[in-house]
Amino acid sequence: MGDESMSKNTKLFAGLLGLALTAVAAQAAVPTLNYEINGDNLVITYTGTLLQSGDAVNWTEVTSASSPYKVRLGSQKLFFCASASEEPVDPLVPGKDMTVSLPGGVSLNMIWINSGSFTMGSPSDELGRQAGEVQHRVTLTNGYWLGKYEVTQAQYKAVTGSDPSSFKGADLPVESVSWDDAMAFCKKLTEIEMAAGRLSKKYEYTLPTEAQWEYACRAGTTTALNNGRDLSDLMQSPEMNPVGWYRPNSSMQTHPVGEKRANAWGLYDMHGNVTEWCLDWNGDYPTSSVTDPKGPATGSIRVARGGNWGLAARFCRSASRGGSEPDSSNRGIGFRVAIIPVK
Predict the structure, then answer these.
(1) 124 and 190 within one domain
(2) What is the pLDDT of residue 131?
(3) Which residue has the higher pLDDT, 36 or 20?
(4) Domain check: are 51 and 172 in the same one?
(5) How many structural domains does the chain have?
(6) Where are the beta strands (DSSP E) in 67-173?
(7) Is 332 domain-assigned?
(8) What is the mean pLDDT of the segment spanning 289-306?
(9) Least confident window among 46-55, 123-132, 236-245, 247-256
(10) Could you tell me the strand order of the sheet in which 60-61 lies?
């Protein structure tokens, strides 16, 4: 490769048992390529498309590769090239939190939620338990990102250009939005981020499923609240005060997001402030273990979770279920966005 080529490309060579690697930049987003030795394997981490060659002249795509890619060390000389993909280089790194810059410089913080299993619903002796909270084991096989906070009025306006909220304030959660409005926001944000090259077709913004919402709310807890406490009263329960705005402490209005204590996974306002739309149609829970549930295929009521500033403590529990027609809205309901893999 000549001097002119070297000025336009990034190159990395590793002379390890005859194996060499090179990262080649293209006119699109610049790919990256790094490596480390792990036992008898050379582990390649890269962005873009991974190509392989035996002579550094003729290249073929390693179609089965995903980063990190393991190569067993040997005597055969191989060359690997990370070239720019037709897809934008995805800034989303599973396992890491991220901050999205919305139009106008407004930030949207997203928390990574690992895959896992939990018991959804409430035990029969939980104070405030309602019908329909049948306990069952749920396994979520894919990690996802969830908003650190409820979507604020500043964030909603940055994406849609409007703010329907009754209680005005840039850092207050947006409310008076229907399920249809929330999904339109997610669709528009997906389009904006894809057009800017910050989101690949592998992901989309959407609402969390009811199971994803409760799993993230609980953050490993099994109690009524995600601070490890159960309620001592159905209406005015002091256990709610550290984690959520509800009828007894809210002065009957919303409050800026993030003022109460976060749960163990760094999520704020999962209890109270505004009730949050979920993706699912409302329906009966299964009675046996399920994997990646998405609720009924059809229905008339969309699920909403978490309770709000105008409700009693019993309706703000981790397991409490609510909902409304998808085109309805009121001052107590908003939403939180998720980023999930597209199937």
Answers:
(1) yes
(2) 93
(3) 36
(4) no
(5) 2
(6) 69-72, 78-83, 98-101, 107-113, 116-120, 136-140, 144-147
(7) yes
(8) 97
(9) 46-55
(10) 19-23, 78-83, 49-53, 60-61
Alpha-carbon span 244 to 275, nearest angstrom: 11
pLDDT in tens, 221-231: 999 999 999 99
Domain boundary among 38, 60, 83: 83
For residue 85, the model assigns a pLDDT of: 54
The DSSP 8-state label assigned to residue 18 in this structure reads T
What's the Cα-to-Cα distance from 98 to each of 173, 280, 326, 330, rounded to whole Å? Answer: 20, 25, 29, 30
CB 171 within 8 A of CB 149: no
**181 within domain boundaries:** yes
What is the pTM for the complete model shown? Answer: 0.76
For residues 163 and 308, membership in a common domain is answered with yes
Please give the mean pLDDT across all residues of the chain: 88
How far is the C-alpha of 254 from the C-alpha of 311, rounded, in Å? 12
3-state secondary structure of 103: helix
Domain that residue 78 falls in: 3-83
Q: What is the distance of C-alpha 63 from the center of its chain?
A: 27
For the stretch 238-254, pLDDT in tens is: 999 999 999 999 999 99
Burial label for 38, CB within 10 Å (0-12, 13-18, 19+), is exposed
Q: How many angstroms separate the CA atoms of 284 and 160, rounded?
A: 34
Q: Are residues 179 and 271 in the same domain?
A: yes
Furthest-apart CA pair in the chain: how many Å? 76
- Confidence band, pLDDT 50/70/90 cuts, at residue 84: low
CA pair distance 133, 217, nearest whole angstrom: 15
Please give the residue that has the higher pLDDT: either 112 or 61.
112
Residue 89: inside a domain: no
Same domain? 198 vs 154: yes
- Cα–Cα distance measured from residue 332 to residue 165, given in angstroms and rounded to the nearest whole number: 10
